[in-house]
């Protein structure tokens, strides 16, 4: 399989690159602001460049993992968020429609906003923030332009080794190493998803020719507080450094919806119950992935 990974320098994209290498798939990644000798530069908003790349490389599958993750940044710069997320998805989907292959778009649990019940793939999206609204639009664009050749992978709280150590677990480890007290929400939930497993599942679904939307999240549901405590425990730091408080008392804007839970029935029926490992096993995997040199950088940062 020939894979084009847009956002090859990011958390999800870099694990897609590794997963392709592990499976012996041909792959090409792209970078945007973080130059990478193994990849090619690309701004997904540049339609001509996107078309040229896809026409030249002729991928069987294009993975659209280039996007924003920070909701606060998206609220502050809504036009940029829309350009990267929606215009970018549109340019890529148009190029794939023209030159063949299929498209895998990474989206998130936040498309459902705050919801009291577990959300299935076909449930209506009710986004509340700027980033989630753009993600819903990007999903719609991809469904419209590639009705039979798209896969939307919705995930949550992705964590794993990333060169810049920006994922949520590495940020926690950095603070714990500095013995900073960490105040987290004890009533805001997510489904931590280990990045190497997410990447492998996305590749496998693409190989199987799966289309439509699939929720790809880990088997456990955590609060920010319990995830932080588990991270401290597994990395051998003092769990008392973590304090849990009601989300409404935190000064983080915009607040993430407190209650989100993606249904995993479809994922289980496609790839079995263990396609994504537990949060504890993922954190142990991350601990093993962090080579001594990386840990030194984490401690020093
Ligand atoms: N992380 C999560 O928990 C999570 C959960 C669900 C869904 N998602 C979605 O999955 C996607 C990837 O997330 P991630 O965590 O891997 O993000 P990330 O680590 O921040 O990586 C983002 C990637 O996008 C690239 N990029 C940014 N702006 C670009 C542009 N204008 N043109 C081309 N490439 C651009 C970045 O390139 P440079 O680094 O070279 O600048 C980087 O490779 C995002 O759409 C995110 O919303 C993430």
From TrEMBL:
Enzyme class of the recorded protein, top EC level: oxidoreductase
Record's protein name: dTDP-4-dehydrorhamnose reductase
Classification via PANTHER family: DTDP-4-DEHYDRORHAMNOSE REDUCTASE, METHIONINE ADENOSYLTRANSFERASE 2 SUBUNIT BETA
InterPro entries with a match to the protein in the record: dTDP_dehydrorham_reduct, NAD(P)-bd_dom_sf, RmlD-like-bd
GO BP term, pick one: dTDP-rhamnose biosynthetic process
Keywords for the protein's UniProt record, in alphabetical order: NADP, Oxidoreductase
Domain RmlD-like substrate binding: 1-271
MF term (GO), any: dTDP-4-dehydrorhamnose reductase activity
EC number(s) recorded for this UniProt protein: 1.1.1.133
Highest taxon of the lineage: Bacteria
Catalytic activity: dTDP-beta-L-rhamnose + NADP(+) = dTDP-4-dehydro-beta-L-rhamnose + NADPH + H(+)
Stored SUPFAM superfamilies: NAD(P)-binding Rossmann-fold domains
Family, per entry: Belongs to the dTDP-4-dehydrorhamnose reductase family.
Pathway entry: Carbohydrate biosynthesis; dTDP-L-rhamnose biosynthesis
Function: Catalyzes the reduction of dTDP-6-deoxy-L-lyxo-4-hexulose to yield dTDP-L-rhamnose.
């Amino acid at each position: 399989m020939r894979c084009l990974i847009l956002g090859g320098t990011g958390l999800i994209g870099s694990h897609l690159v590794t997963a392709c290498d592990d499976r012996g798939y041909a792959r090409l990644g792209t970078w945007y602001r973080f130059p990478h000798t193994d990849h090619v530069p690309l701004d997904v908003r540049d339609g001509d460049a996107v078309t040229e790349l896809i026409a030249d490389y002729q991928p069987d599958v294009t993975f659209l993992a280039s996007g924003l993750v920070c909701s606060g940044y998206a609220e502050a710069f809504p036009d940029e968020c829309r350009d990267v997320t929606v215009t970018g998805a549109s340019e890529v989907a148009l190029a794939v429609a023209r030159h063949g292959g299929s498209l895998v778009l990474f989206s998130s649990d936040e498309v459902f906003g705050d919801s009291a019940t577990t959300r299935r793939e076909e449930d209506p999206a009710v986004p509340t923030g700027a980033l989630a609204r753009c993600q819903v639009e990007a999903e719609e664009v991809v469904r419209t332009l590639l009705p039979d050749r798209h896969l939307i992978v919705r995930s949550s709280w992705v964590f794993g080794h990333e060169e810049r150590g920006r994922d949520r677990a590495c940020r926690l480890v950095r603070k714990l190493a500095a013995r900073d007290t960490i105040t987290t929400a004890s009533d805001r939930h997510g489904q931590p998803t280990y990045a190497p497993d997410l990447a492998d599942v996305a590749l496998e679904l693409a190989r199987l020719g799966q289309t439509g939307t699939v929720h790809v999240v880990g088997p456990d549901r955590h609060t920010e507080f319990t995830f932080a405590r588990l991270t401290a425990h597994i990395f051998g730091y003092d769990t008392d450094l973590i304090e849990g408080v009601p989300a409404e008392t935190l000064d983080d804007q915009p607040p993430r919806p407190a209650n989100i839970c993606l249904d995993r029935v479809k994922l289980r029926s496609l790839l079995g119950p263990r396609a994504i490992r537990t949060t504890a096993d993922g954190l142990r995997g991350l601990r093993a992935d962090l080579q001594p040199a990386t840990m030194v950088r984490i401690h020093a940062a």
